[in-house]
Fold this sequence. Notes:
Blueprint: E1 4-8, H1 11-21, E2 26-30, E3 36-37, E4 45-46, E5 52-53, E6 56-57, H2 62-74, E7 78-80, H3 86-98, H4 116-124, H5 131-158, H6 169-185, E8 190-199, E9 205-213, E10 216-217, H7 223-233, E11 238-250, H8 258-269, H9 273-285, E12 287-289, E13 293-295, H10 310-324, H11 339-345, H12 370-386, E14 391-402, E15 405-416, E16 441-453, H13 462-472, H14 480-489, E17 493-496, E18 499-502, H15 504-516, H16 523-537, H17 543-564, E19 572-577, E20 584-590, E21 593-598, E22 607-608, E23 612-617, E24 625-630, E25 636-640, E26 649-650, E27 654-658, E28 665-671, E29 674-679, E30 687-689
Parallel strand pairs: 1-2, 1-7
Antiparallel strand pairs: 3-6, 4-5, 8-9, 8-16, 9-10, 9-15, 11-14, 11-16, 12-13, 14-15, 17-18, 19-20, 20-21, 21-22, 23-24, 24-25, 25-26, 27-28, 28-29, 29-30
Helix pairs in contact: 3-5, 5-16, 5-17, 6-14, 6-15, 8-12, 8-13, 9-12
Amino acid sequence: xxxxxxxxxxxxxxxxxxxxxxxxxxxxxxxxxxxxxxxxxxxxxxxxxxxxxxxxxxxxxxxxxxxxxxxxxxxxxxxxxxxxxxxxxxxxxxxxxxxxxxxxxxxxxxxxxxxxxxxxxxxxxxxxxxxxxxxxxxxxxxxxxxxxxxxxxxxxxxxxxxxxxxxxxxxxxxxxxxxxxxxxxxxxxxxxxxxxxxxxxxxxxxxxxxxxxxxxxxxxxxxxxxxxxxxxxxxxxxxxxxxxxxxxxxxxxxxxxxxxxxxxxxxxxxxxxxxxxxxxxxxxxxxxxxxxxxxxxxxxxxxxxxxxxxxxxxxxxxxxxxxxxxxxxxxxxxxxxxxxxxxxxxxxxxxxxxxxxxxxxxxxxxxxxxxxxxxxxxxxxxxxxxxxxxxxxxxxxxxxxxxxxxxxxxxxxxxxxxxxxxxxxxxxxxxxxxxxxxxxxxxxxxxxxxxxxxxxxxxxxxxxxxxxxxxxxxxxxxxxxxxxxxxxxxxxxxxxxxxxxxxxxxxxxxxxxxxxxxxxxxxxxxxxxxxxxxxxxxxxxxxxxxxxxxxxxxxxxxxxxxxxxxxxxxxxxxxxxxxxxxxxxxxxxxxxxxxxxxxxxxxxxxxxxxxxxxxxxxxxxxxxxxxxxxxxxxxxxxxxxxxxxxxxxxxxxxxxxxxxxxxxxxxxxxxxxxxxxxxxxxxxxxxxxxxxx
Length: 693
């Protein structure tokens, strides 16, 4: 009996789905991503023929394509079950071409989660391929190819080989460069605060903060203002002018979208965006759960919708009422929906949520890796909390006066924990003010004026950069992680702890692109291009016309840039002397980063690696220096300069200090509590907090 063929993207997903559908009636195969694409070795876009893409079968996938053709030929029906987004729709479209399936045939199925019910429901409701989604993806692919393949060669010629430009990556690098410029040009501004330690009639102390004058807020900008205020309050008592008691509610956050998940995972779990998406993909595609078998634990992970299905809401309600308490469930009969979410209601997209709320993190912890548990726990708690009642605080605002000067204090006490019972990552203490009455005199025990200076804006972290990209409308949920990975791998941006800062190369490339391709480096232009892709997806714009409007000014800008841009010499002369010819060595950029070469190249071809000493002697051989190196995956590690004679190696940065307990070397370690010095001997466990300098 002929079986139906279902084609998905990943082998892991194929295994899970085949279990749900049954091998006796269905064969499930994986395309392993795209099977056709633009060629890597050439532009692959026929500009003269209305930007027609020249797709080819991806090299190395010949055997896979043969297998898919063979299975499709003997199948009674073929279902294309790639991801429910533009990219997934395009993969299905390419598969339909290769397998000779009419795209108007009802061959496309999609699902928001990999569960038995969702898969079987999808099989019963196939549709034809959505050409609008395909065209939106084609437009994005062609636009990126035109910009990348025509600007990158200019960078190769004028700066050095191996560089690249991209519609989203270049603007993202520019954001990091601009933030660094803001920090470097920042001029600190002086400001002051005045705190007063006061006592009420019962002798209870609390703190008041200076607010202003006659009810108007005043910023204290210098010491002179502070001295004038201190002179006024000298030897006087404060009078309680107004007491206001009210209740404040704090609503639960919405379930995760892709970008918010990346931000929260970075802030709370210290995950990179790349790691977050990798682990989330594993949870989505299926995990072997003890007693259940392989099942998808979360819904589709690339989404900007906050919508939740009615079925999922009902199950969350039942769980909250039965397991937490009826008073913790929030009846959300009226829900504000944005236009974006209204659009998403029409397709299968929801926010990221657990596929079964009954599958609590702790109940399946033994089946998950450490990272899978951490991320699933975060997603599960966020979803459950989104259906829970507000947390409620009793807030007491006190306003006190002395002459016409106003000082204020605020106290708060948790009345009902609400959603924070499930989703709470900070230790909060109630701030209780003593019993006070209007007209009461308060005695000043201590005056505490303090000088401060404003701080520059912080460098971007992966979390804050993702937030900014989303706010500006640059890229889409699926592009944030690969974009950040690209600019790090290209050497345009580097990490200092969790902070992102531009490299010299990143600054140079950004300056060249900004001066010569200003329109394409403009944030608003890039965001508008994303909007036009959305218009294509909605069927309101023709993709080739959008590409044509983009390409016309690009073509002219490329012509001018080739004539205008002068070659950049990035060689940096050093005091190091070439041991062969005696000339100075210069720092050059190569395929694998910086290295030293003789200034007299090509007459003298002497080269040597750049040694980054950290100022610590090797703890193993005691003779060599500890140097910072990078692995093939660009991860920093530390080794001895005497390698291979000495094989000392460590992932953490060693320090000069030796453990006073066991004599082993110690190394730096960063945690949420700050910087620590930790003993390298795991059995010792000696560590100490390092105070900030």
